[in-house]
Amino acid sequence: xxxxxxxxNLNSPNKGLGPAGGxxxxxxxxxxxxxxxxxxxxxxxEEEAEELYSDLAKVEEEINTLRQVLLAKEKHSAELKRKLxxxxxxxxxxxxxxxxxxxxxxxxxVRTTEKLGEWNEKVTGSELYKKTSETLSVAGQKTTAAFSxxxxxxxxxxxxxxxxxxFKSFEDKVGNIKYMVVGPRRNGEAVQSPTETNPVQDNAPx
Length: 206
What we know:
Blueprint: H1 23-37, H2 46-84, H3 88-104, H4 107-124, H5 127-162, H6 165-182, E1 185-186, E2 189-190
Antiparallel strand pairs: 1-2
Helix pairs in contact: 1-2
C-alpha cells in the first residue's frame, strides 16, 4: 500500500488524507509562484515546474507520514520495554555487552590479538630478553643477600655494645638516677641502689 496520504489512526475521518493544504495547496502555490515570478530555470517549462512542485509536495507528505509512524512505533516500543522491566540503564548495559562481543568476534580484533601474541613470543624468546631477566634476577638475589648481611652485622654490633663496659656503666648511672628520684622506699618495700651490694635493713640489731 502506498504510504502517501495514510493516517496512523485507522478510525480517523482523515484516513488517506495528508495534512491540511497538502499536495493540492502546494501544487497550486507552486504554480502561482512560478506564474508570478516568471523566473524559471533555463530549459524548464511552466508545466514541468508544476509537475516538480507536485512531486515535491508528495515527497514531503510521505516524510511527514513516516515521521508520525516512527513516533507511534517508538511510543509502542517504550511501552513494551516498560512492561518487560527494561530500564534505559539495563538496555545500555546490554548494548555495551553486545557491542563488546561483536568487537571480540570481529576479524580486526582477532588479527590484532594474534599479532600481539606473536610479538610477545618473539620478545620473550629473544636472547636479549633472557639476558635481561637473568641479570635482574641475579641483582635481586645480591640485594637480598646484602640486606641480610647488614641486618646480621647490626645485630652483632648492638649485642657487643650492650656487653661493653661503657654501656654497663651507663646503665649503672641510669639506675642511680632512678634510685635518687624514687627514694629509698616505694610501696612499703626497700629499694636497693644499683651500686649497693648489700640490701638496706630497717631493723638491724644493735
